[in-house]
Amino acid sequence: MIAYLEPFIQDTDSRRPHDGSSLCEALELQLQGGVSTDSRDTGLAGKDFGGLHSITPLALVRPAGADDVAKVVKSALQSSNLTVAARGNGHSINGQAMADQGLVVDMRAMEDHFRIVQINGLTYADVSGGALWEDVLKRCVSSYGLAPRSWTDYLSLTVGGTLSNGGVSGQAFRYGPQISNVAELEVVTGKGDILICSENENSELFFSVLGGLGQFGIITRARVLLQPAPDMVRWIRLVYDEFETFAGDAESLVRRPEGDSFDYVEGFVFSNNDDPLTGRSTVPLASGAIFDSSHLPETAGSVLYCLEVAVHYRNNDQVSTVDTDIERLLSGLGYVKGLRFQVDLSYVQFLSRVKRAEEEAIANGVWDAPHPWLNLFVSKSDIVNFDRAVFKTLLKNGVGGPMLVYPLLRSRWDSRTSVTLPEGEVFYLVALLRFTPPNPRPALVDKLVEQNREIVNICHVNCIDFKLYLPHYHSEKEWKLHFGNQWSRFVERKTLFDPMAILAPRQKIFARDSLISKLQFLKQKA
User: GO molecular function: any one (predicted)?
Assistant: First the structure.
């Protein structure tokens, strides 16, 4: 079979005339789904939301289920260099879901799977790894009045995709990231095995895959913890002129016990100017609300801060009771009086808030433009220095999109997963969500990418304790530095579950054509 595969895998520069059926035959695949080598499909699979890379795969696989995914991985194992990348909704930034002349598996093509299960008094949703979180939300709320506890801000992401990274939003301070709210997974390993795993069954695989950057297995099903869904949300934004006050209030809120704090806590930085994309006008929530800058003190600098919080409530709750509870939670906070904005909306509308921004961006042509985003976790001990060196200096005029910054608690993350975090109980998510104009000049995009590198370099030079979230590195040295004392565990897990380095090659952590992989391949064939 390997000899028959040579026309498909040797010449990586030429365009192949082969169709999907002949490729299936070559790979000895008998799939319930399908395989396409059509340039329209492989072209789509060779792009992502980041728009910074374009890497064409050998084929796009549309699996019907886990059996198809396993067959694809096992077929790749029979070659010396073929790789497999799982693609969710294509929202990676640096080509992490691509496979250069490999096989990209379209997880969105998997058969729909949705089931509510109850175990030991807890309720879960069993969902496909290729399901979008927005669809999970709608089905859980509309049919059962339930919802997952932890979210991402943007819900057009797949379940398997976010669980392979972390999954963070304003609920994570209380419930932890999404990877802390899943009880069981079905995974196809890099050996082509289909395994059920949980804390008590195949636990090493379970914790390896969670936050594992796709290196140990492809998530084909997940059991997600649910809770009763509220009906309504009061969404509030509070403006601060001093970072230390903003950070102190945010940290106080995330440390408070449940019932004595908000249900959602995030924050962002914005420019103290009239820029429609990054300035003061981006803060008000209700239609017609105005940011009255006369409330700002004369000492206000070039950047300001917004603490974003929310409270859940029921339709039958008295408005006066909700008002009283919120005023109690707000009392003592040091935001600028007169610069408080709020709006009431349904729970589903609140969680879908970024969808509306997406629709506007699509209409304006910027959704399909490059997005050189940068996401970091920064230790509480260094966040003031980061603010001074980055927000107040390098990024004082904004990044053309949101600049998120808010605290999380390390104790809400399970150290057995593959995610690596800064030291200390409190650390901050920093997300620089850049948007570029339609069809930007390559020089502009290169400049923004270089600015991201400069920010990372600033962290190194100033000894700021940080970790990249959704990391992207180019060398083993950089990955070793990223994982620190967890590197040996990460490598050991790779040898257990994907020893041939089949999976997620564009993460650039392990190379399929490395000496070790080749020796393993020869040993296996001997």
Answer: FAD binding
